[in-house]
Specification:
about 270 residues; alpha/beta; Rossmann fold; 8 helices; 9 strands
């Protein structure tokens, strides 16, 4: 009798744990652009996963950094082609070590629980550029390609405002605190994407940047132009799509085909 009760109790515990894991994995379900969206919390990570109607072979995925849902043209087209779309919140961390560690945990969880490809495409819009490059530099074997959309590539440019850009106001002090450095130390601190390229180039990770040539918030000459020059010098492959005559901080392309083609080329059939 005692043995029977013990096994009954054990089965109930297993069932409870299993259901809890399932609930945590699936979270809140909704529709996003016609696709199934899951908002969930894994441990302390706020996550989003959008699931294609028919997943592509190898379960490729795009890992969106910051501003989920803004200018989603490429994301939607990739979902139509069978890509998953994922997001893990690292806001306020400016691509620091804590942010990289969060992404490490998310990558481990999402590839294990969902079976997604171990080499996603990284998509960084604006300040999202900080985390995609800093994570890729630490994990070059886990990246298929990098798509930067008017990406921040040097914290001294934004939010620092140390060059031609407008800067990010109070965001500069937040960035310094996030990286544990002072204003003076930021001159030599190697905490930005422009200083993280060597491991990425060695892994031969292709890069695409889409930007506005006259961007006044994230000036090209202080960000993407430095990435382009240094990456080419390291032997890396990088393509720049520049939109002339746009003076604000523009994102994406009305026709996302060049972005979609780039990601499909480097993600499918890995």
């Amino acid at each position: 009798m005692r043995i029977t009760l013990f096994f009954l109790f054990l089965c109930l515990c297993v069932s409870f744990v299993t259901n809890s894991i399932a609930d945590q994995k699936d979270g809140k379900k909704s529709k996003w652009k016609g696709f199934e969206r899951h908002d969930f919390v894994h441990e302390d990570l706020k996550c989003i996963l959008v699931i294609p109607a028919t997943p592509a072979e190898g379960l490729p995925w795009v890992w969106r950094a910051r501003f989920f849902g803004h200018q989603p043209q490429a994301d939607v087209e990739l979902l139509k082609k069978g890509f998953h779309l994922a997001y893990c919140d690292v806001s306020g961390l400016f691509g620091n070590e804590v942010a990289v560690a969060r992404w490490d945990r998310f990558h481990k969880m999402i590839t294990k629980s969902r079976g997604l490809s171990k080499r996603p495409a990284l998509e960084g819009m604006s300040r999202g550029g900080l985390i995609i490059y800093n994570w890729a530099s630490k994990n070059p074997d886990k990246v298929s390609c990098i798509y930067g959309d008017a990406p921040v590539c040097d914290i001294r440019s934004w939010p620092g405002g140390k060059g031609k850009g407008k800067g990010g106001g109070s965001g500069w002090q937040q960035a310094l605190k996030a990286h544990g450095i002072t204003d003076d130390q930021s001159v030599a601190a190697k905490v930005s994407p422009i200083d993280k390229l060597e491991p990425i180039a060695k892994a031969k990770i292709p890069i695409l940047h889409v930007l506005g040539a006259a961007d006044k918030v994230v000036p090209v000459e202080e960000n993407s132009a430095i990435i382009e020059k240094r990456y080419r010098e390291l032997g890396g492959s990088i393509k720049i799509i520049s939109k002339p005559g746009i003076g604000h901080h523009p994102h994406a392309l009305k026709d996302p085909k060049p972005i979609v083609d780039f990601i499909v080329k480097h993600c499918m059939n890995l």
